[in-house]
Amino acid sequence: MLTISQLAAYAGVTVRAVRHYHATGLLPEPERDHAGYRRYDAKAVVELIRIRTLAEAGVPLARVQELLAADEEEFAGAVAEIDARLRREIRERQEHRRQIARLAAGDSLALPDEVVGYLDRMREKGVPELLVEGERDGWILMAARWPEKMPEFIADKLAQLEDPRTLRLYLLIGDLLEKGVTDERLDGVADLIAEMAGEAAARGDLDRQNEDMNDESYVALIDSFASQSHPLVVQLQQRMAERGWSGWARMEKAEQP
Amino acid sequence: MLTISQLAAYAGVTVRAVRHYHATGLLPEPERDHAGYRRYDAKAVVELIRIRTLAEAGVPLARVQELLAADEEEFAGAVAEIDARLRREIRERQEHRRQIARLAAGDSLALPDEVVGYLDRMREKGVPELLVEGERDGWILMAARWPEKMPEFIADKLAQLEDPRTLRLYLLIGDLLEKGVTDERLDGVADLIAEMAGEAAARGDLDRQNEDMNDESYVALIDSFASQSHPLVVQLQQRMAERGWSGWARMEKAEQP
DNA sequence: TCTTGACCTTGACGCAGCGTCAGGGTTGCA
DNA sequence: TGCAACCCTGACGCTGCGTCAAGGTCAAGA
Asked: Is A204 exposed, middle or buried (0-12, 13-18, 19+ CB in 10 A)?
């Protein structure tokens, strides 16, 4: 007769595992000796090994019992199902590997490819890193709310980036951040924004974008995020208001009364 | 300001997940309104999305926090580690797929390939299925105790199977099972076993095998398993004892005094 | 005004498959 | 007789939430 540790050793499992199988009813409790120790015969070794074989093949313990008792047809069906699960888990993990490879590559924490491309383009053009990061977080919010509209949004932004004034705008803002805020610099930036926004409005671009961003409260949320991210935003919004522009993520020309 | 369900919806997670992240300290608890409801700003959306991005890439939640705060070098190291884990899990599952494919193919519940081949050969030779299954369970025990000696054991058995008397022996045992036990049949089987065992002993095969099975108590275990599996075994052991043979799995000629 | 339904809150159990104490009793050997 | 190496039961821990339970809150309709 065998003790539990001998049984476990022959089957290549831990004592704890054997007790677990008893507790779940997977392996029947054997006789006890006078001290209350479990005593096993050879059948238990065979049973335990059969259980382990299935378990090690990825069969959930809850299904091992039925599988051991199943006829060939059931068995084949169950095996097919388990194989499908394993394939799914492999696919998931392969997908995870791709994801973290992207993460390791750079910015792509939560961003669709287009945005990553756009941010890279900003860097190529020489936009200060701090501003690129600010844009990035903003786009995380945009992508969370309007994932399907991202290609359009980004196409507009890429086109805008080709206008030399855009780079000048970012550089001016960079100056504001690095060299300190002065009225002159604030006005310079605000004038430029107003000029470009005016043209976008004339082209109809603004209206189109503003229609796409059809969620008042979410736009407010993004604006509040911008305001929180740097005090400069609030100051610029004031200057823009003086020039008749309201909003931030979704900019609008105030009515001329 | 956002409620918890709005936050969750924007980030594409469940409300329960958000609360879980609060509970584990992964996402800071926000302000509460007068009713005790959590109120979120846009920063929380960005934070939550960043958390989910890592989590969905297979990063364990316990590590998400450090990864979000990590510099590039730490990040790269952690990513490499996670990638290694994913590769290991993929390998494990691929191995599982192979295992259950083998299980689906047939007998191989817990048996090395050689044994499966041997059992198949028995079937080809026309050995009754019931006896094949008996052999199978016995070999599960053998393989559990002496996995490294299995090729040798099985080579001996395969050679033995080529002796036409072996098939006759199995068929005689089959008769015993199907047609009922008679003294004549029992003696016929016992005589044949004794004859073949005597030759094996003369060739030295028995000594070699018995040396390999160098574990008294385990041999006793296998014998007790055989005895339990069918009453016929006990009867045959008696007839063998009358002919001067003891043991079963490990057969020995008693001393002639 | 009352009711309904959709939210929100905390607290607690459940899941898979054991690992790992804790706090005891037993056995076998020197 | 003492010690190491076993055995026992019971209970918590891990992962990432899902899923009640038992309430409180809020907005809208009858």
From this structure: exposed
HSE-up of A113 (CA within 13 Å, CB side)? Answer: 2
CA distance B192 to B182: 16
Q: Is B254 left (phi over 0), alpha (psi -120 to 50) or beta?
A: beta
C-alpha of B208 from chain center: 29
The β-bridge relationship of strands B245-246 and A252-253 is unpaired
The encoded tokens of residue A198 equal: 């005016």
Average pLDDT over residues B148-166: 91
CB atoms within 10 A of CB B110: 24
Q: Which of A82, A101, A141 is the closest to B42 by Cβ?
A: A141
Contact flag A140-B52 (C-beta cutoff 8 Å): no
Distance from C-alpha of B148 to C-alpha of B141, rounded to nearest angstrom: 13
B54 and chain A in contact, CB less than 8 A:
yes
CB B253 within 8 A of CB B244: yes
B residues 68-127 lying closer than 8 A (beta carbon) to A? 75-76, 79, 82-83, 86-87, 89-90, 93-94, 96-97, 99-101, 103-104, 109-110
**DSSP three-state, residue A180:** coil
> H/E element holding A75?
helix A72-105
Tens-digit pLDDT profile for chain A (257 aa)? 899 999 999 999 999 999 999 999 999 999 999 999 999 999 999 999 989 988 988 889 999 988 888 888 888 888 888 898 889 989 989 988 888 887 777 666 667 888 988 999 999 988 998 899 889 889 999 988 888 899 999 999 999 999 999 999 999 999 998 898 899 999 999 999 999 999 999 998 889 988 999 888 889 889 989 998 889 999 999 999 999 999 999 999 886 54
- Residue B250 is classified by DSSP as S
- Two tokens, residue B142: 């053998």
- Residue B109: count of CB within 10 angstroms of its CB: 21
Determine whether A216 is exposed, middle or buried from the number of CB atoms within 10 Å of its CB (0-12, 13-18, 19+).
exposed
DSSP element (H, E) containing B255: none
Q: Which two tokens stand for residue A175?
A: 């100056």
Give per-residue pLDDT as tens, B186-209: 999 999 999 999 999 999 888 998
